[in-house]
Write a structure and sequence with these properties.
Length: 413
Amino acid sequence: MINTQLSVTTQSAAQPSAPTEQPNSPLSNATATSQPSIATNHDSTVSKADKYGGVGESVTSHIDPATRSRADSKTQALALEQTQAARNLFYNPGPIAEQQLGMAANELGELMDMMPNDEMRGAISARLIGNEGLMKGQSIQDVRSALSRVTQGAEASANDRGATVELMGGIGALFADTGATTGMQSRSQSQSEKLRDFLADHIPLLSDSNITEMKELGDSKVTGPLKSQQRKRPSPDAVPRFGMHDLGAQADKNLGVSPKNALGSVSWQLATIDKNKVASTAEPLSGHMSGSPAEALATFDALLGNQNEKPYVKAHTQTRSEAAENPSYVQKQAFHSQDEADVKSARAAWATGYLVATGFHSSVEVAESALKYSGQNPRPEAYSGTSDAADWLGDGAATAMIKELHESHSKTP
């Protein structure tokens, strides 16, 4: 919650819990199974990495992962399936999702109103209204109006909802200080520091200790241990994107959404991925494993939580505590209770949905940070510490799981 209290109770960073079991519907309200489902990698017909070489890239070690959708019908089908479910969330959110996002938008709007000047309002809006953003070329007042519409609910557009999620992700990234610069060219270091100081004063749950715990659990260095080796940025130029592997237009057509009502395009630097990883992963890849859901969810929780609830890590901390007291403990319910699952799974849907709907990240790339938010440790004991979700969810399981999450908080178009 936003307040003017500058003190906050902190605790030491939590260590990862012993593995807990993955539910069949792990991010909503299903009962857990005794053993997570381990997906195998793709079949031998796509085992040769050279099959997915992009233009001018056939002899390089890293390729544009979207080339796999152009070469492999299974990957393309998964990319379209997850894009369509994610984008429908922004067109037709369910009541709990709409309520949660509306409450967050109200808090964000109040924050903007309390800011001392338009320079700071511009700083928090920099990515949204910059050349790469969802609201490219629009004004600070346009951002504030979008938040008002989401607060009110009925008149909100898909772009209004996307802007609200983007703002929460941007706040989380600012506090996580991961070095990500996409879309931040128009915000100076001085402006970032002033914005962070203001937000730290008004959102005390985003304390240094709480952010440290969030990063230790859900940062991309944790979810993608080999990300720095397996991903490259070949060019500083931003490329417009419209859904996973640019399948947003087809998804919108399937959903009956006209171009004027569609969730807009965003731009970012192309990420190339190790060609062997692309070849061994049927699930579509985009930017490699992501910590962005954790950043957005930490902000979501901090805006709507209370002083006794640590953002992002609450369910994980409870799982760890239960397991410490009872070594045979098995998590029976995502988020540990139905009431919590209803609310927190809606937040998880928004945080992951925006990334998939725009094409920033794919289902397999957001899966681990989303599962951990629900209190589960999705890393099977059979895999090493250098593995990632593509190793155990890479043959279609991630799309099924994240799609189900998004559909559980959407209305049928």
